[in-house]
Task: inverse folding
């Protein structure tokens, strides 16, 4: 005999569908409202730091932030209640972010200014990727992620090498430029070197001596050339994974002669002329 | 018995050939003059905003702009008259641009300054692609466009991720740098972060504290590294489409069913099973 | 009966070997001295514009320049004399450069300051490529050049599109930013837009209004994204030509079964086991 | 009869294991401590140039530097003692670096300020690559290095061409801009041209005349376009080496002659004609 579910159990199930479901209307609507509130909340924190705006609307900003924080708190509690293994959610990436997104506001009650850390809510915007779990889209994201992970080793080795170069070039520039032109210490010179090598070029520190400008020119040309390296690494990885995907989706197997690389729409084996897809 | 065409009908046909034709001498000449006038018109609006020039030649500039506007108006009316389905033209991309290109000048009669929007005529320069409908050229444009469309999904996902990073880094820099060095609000700090991450580096806002400069260095190295990602995505797409095109041109042709994309070493048509290369 | 050559003819032949030859010791030495003199001459013109240096050594600089110019003049005359078809040399790319490299100095006799154009001698440095006509090196140069030529069409289309975007964005920024912050005319705004879109970012003109900074952010992200396009085009072309070269050099043909894609060091056909290279 | 080893010999062997070994616990620990000390030492030199810090802690900094230097000296002597062919180590890349890393400190005893060159110790950080001689990691480094070496020829040719362009464009800008706007000499103008072409854009020197800004725009667009070239070269090389590696891992093995790189669908060994895949 099946027990009838308690009202609490029914409430849990319904909430679960709304909060965690992404395929029902209610679930989608909830996700959209949530994303909207996250965005609004991030905007509010940003506006709070704009002086002219904060002076005029300080109270309204704080009020709105509190309303959103309370909504997020209820959502957090509901997420824990309506899931079967709450610990798994609480200690997951999104669970920790969700908690960190509400804590600063409560902390600001005791510690003025800590509400600024509400900006961590921006990380909740990553939920969009969860909502958009369209197979095509998530397949592309996954491919991109795998390519980046595959090229990680080479890029770290490259960055390490760049860093050592920056220390040496920075020290050289410190010696060459002296202290008149902004190169006041080796750390500052290294900062300048990174600014230059990455082709950012703020211009807050610039060489003024001819020799300094000559070395700077070499650094720039070097930076211009080596930007090719990470790009080349990542591109090659992406191209490889593209290529693999292309191959994987296309292959058909001939039962007669065993040839594999038939086209997408092949009906007969190109090698022996036997019909493909007889049994499948 | 075939009816003789009215004079109006003949005029319509001739105009159609001149305005829409791209293969006749008259059509080509018309297109060239049109492009020249569009360029001239765009130049005139630009020069009008250069103070020293405007003061000297204001009347001449306005006169020339009116002449071109009237020419464009006549052209617009003729385009509607001489086409069989005027609605399709009016609501097409080029039709709307053509209308928007003449409206601001008439509006400026009532609303001073609105003639600045004549600059929208620059969009008419896109017509060049229509004029140059050489198969080789338009094939390459199409290939480029398809590659960009194919990589759209990945690039949007990437940009979204970058934006979230910029919000977080911008807020961090706002906290670290304080308000002395230009990081006066979170939106400004986010603006700085985008300027830095994209390696533009205006230098209007730069970090001055050691910690700020350290974080900035990390942002720059990150930006330098991740420029590889969109580049890698687009390059892989272009390479893939290049590769496909390359394959297509090498393909064998089946005399029996007409299919083209057989492999290099195919002996039988994969579609109908007929032997390939019988006569060749 | 063979006629004995006149002394002039012998002189012509010897000069020809020294000036045009690149494989003899004398020819190589001449080329090296020539390159050295070109470099020295370019350096001299550069130094002449450095005030502090010019004041001190003006006379020595001018003297040295005259000596080099006279040497180049003699070389130019000899090049014409000792070649069989002087007209072909005179009107060739290098012939015109060689003439332009000596004219400004003589002109400066009549027209003060025109000796600055001696800098055109820098183009003579391109001769290095002629001297280094090592097959490996020139093969790579050729491959690079072909790749760039092959991608020309797509890059021009892309640049045209970017230019139209810059006109529209520049005008928008002119309207948005007003005239307080450096966006004083549409041409200046377009200049700013190019500076920003190419991620150069001088910082001489920067947006100050929130809306202007927002649009600027979009432009930068756009610029950061579309740098991928020319890179992708060129990379795909180079990769294609690399791939082709790789294929061309490797292919071996099996006389028995006709298979083509055997490895570099294959002795037997992988398909039928027949010996390769039987007759060749 | 085997002679018993002297105590000195045993000491030598043990030291060798600690200093040169990377697979024993003691060896790894020694490497880690060494890297930590190198990093600390580099940080100390950097901090010494930061005025505020140096004034406060000058004596402590110097003391620590001397301690590290003495440790490095002992290490250097031990490295020579415990190796069988000391000359090979002394004149190797790492041997020279190790010596240069200790000399400046001793020199500073006679020559004030020379301890700044201690920064050369940063090069010792390259040892990390030696410590991390994990086959996967060093394989990737090697692949990257080979790709860069393979593309060296093309990149040097490209850089030479860029340099000639910079000389000509720099001179043009010097003539166009006159001396009011920072383009005070041709070398400075060339420096500006490199800053602009590499998209660094410090903004310390910027064109102010309309013509100068127009030329600058062309330079920027050119720079934006040609950044594609080194990137394309390196990417194509990396992709090629990736592709080769991918092929290698798929290769079939011949049981008869041991050759590995057979094609995907090979039935017979291309080297000895023996049938492949007999047992597998």
Result:
């Amino acid at each position: 005999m099946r027990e009838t579910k308690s009202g609490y159990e029914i409430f849990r199930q319904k909430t679960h569908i709304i909060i965690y479901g992404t395929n029902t209307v209610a679930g989608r609507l909830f996700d959209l409202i949530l994303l909207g509130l996250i965005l609004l909340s991030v905007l509010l924190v940003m506006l709070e730091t704009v002086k002219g705006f904060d002076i005029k609307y300080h109270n309204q900003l704080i009020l709105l932030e509190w309303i959103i924080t309370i909504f997020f708190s209820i959502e957090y509690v509901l997420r824990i209640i309506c899931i079967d293994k709450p610990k798994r959610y609480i200690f997951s990436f999104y669970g920790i972010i969700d908690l960190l997104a509400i804590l600063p506001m409560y902390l600001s009650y005791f510690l003025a200014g800590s509400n600024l850390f509400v900006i961590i809510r921006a990380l909740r915007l990553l939920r969009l990727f969860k909502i958009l779990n369209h197979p095509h889209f998530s397949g592309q994201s996954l491919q991109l992620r795998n390519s980046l992970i595959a090229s990680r080793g080479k890029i770290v080795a490259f960055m390490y090498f760049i860093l050592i170069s920056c220390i040496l070039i920075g020290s050289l520039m410190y010696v060459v430029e002296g202290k008149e032109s902004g190169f006041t210490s080796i750390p500052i010179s290294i900062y300048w070197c990174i600014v230059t090598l990455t082709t950012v070029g703020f211009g807050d520190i610039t060489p003024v001596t001819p020799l300094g400008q000559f070395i700077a020119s070499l650094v720039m040309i070097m930076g211009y050339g080596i930007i090719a390296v990470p790009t080349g690494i990542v591109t090659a990885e992406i191209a490889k994974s593209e290529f693999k995907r292309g191959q994987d989706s296309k292959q058909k197997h001939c039962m007669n002669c065993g040839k594999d690389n038939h086209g997408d729409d092949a009906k007969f084996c190109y090698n022996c002329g036997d019909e493909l897809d007889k049994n499948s």
Notes: The radius of gyration of chain C is 29 Å. Chain C has a mean pLDDT of 81. Residues 51-81 of chain C form the longest helix (31 residues).
